[in-house]
Design a protein that fits this description.
The chain is of the alpha+beta class and 185 residues long. It has 8 helices and 7 strands. Strand 4 and strand 5 (132-138) form a beta hairpin.
């Protein structure tokens, strides 16, 4: 197996910030208590992805009052929403127009995005046709459903028509996501 997958603290903090905005400091204190967190996260320090998963899934439960039916998929959707509120996320999503062409452009650059967000996780993509992109994630501690939800929410956020995301496990911790939508000219 590869090295431990890591993620920048700013992305973990985005989940905690969301909880604070929607439920207040008492909910954040409950999160910290449940997970044994003693202090916040440094924006540019790397933390284990497994810790982020625990945090986002617990934040999801605290926001909704209970775990949703497809917790991993819904955690991925929340993950994208929170990512899009970070400084890095805002910069990333502002570089291309919210069109089919713009989405393809951004998806073709996910390896660059992934290199900044993660350490020890490789992200690559390839364009299949005008409305299909494949993204492969290697050395990924997230469940396969997590990034299916993340990419689905990204497509919805982008305003794509009839988005669909399928996922396939190619090998242990190696997932391929196929993102399809109805192309608009």
């Amino acid at each position: 197996m590869g090295k431990t997958p890591l993620i920048k603290g700013m992305f973990i903090s985005s989940h905690i910030d969301k909880l604070r905005r929607e439920k207040g400091d008492a909910a954040v204190a409950e999160l910290y208590k449940r997970l044994g967190i003693e202090k916040g996260f440094n924006n540019f320090e790397d933390y284990p992805v497994r810790q982020e998963i625990e945090i986002i899934e617990t934040v999801l439960e605290l926001l909704d009052g209970a775990a949703p039916e497809n917790k991993e998929f819904e955690a991925g959707r929340l993950h994208f929403k929170n990512f899009s509120e970070t400084f890095f996320g805002k910069m990333t999503i502002s570089i291309a127009p919210r069109t089919s062409e713009g989405f393809k452009t951004i998806m073709q650059g996910v390896s660059l995005i992934g290199r900044y967000v993660f350490k020890n996780t490789n992200v690559s993509s390839r364009l299949i046709d005008e409305s299909v992109v494949k993204v492969i994630m290697d050395n990924n501690d997230y469940s396969i459903e997590h990034f299916r939800g993340f990419f689905y929410e990204w497509a919805v956020f982008w305003g794509l028509v009839q988005p669909e995301v399928t996922a396939e496990e190619l090998a242990e911790k190696r997932y391929e996501y196929t993102i399809r939508w109805k192309y608009e000219y």
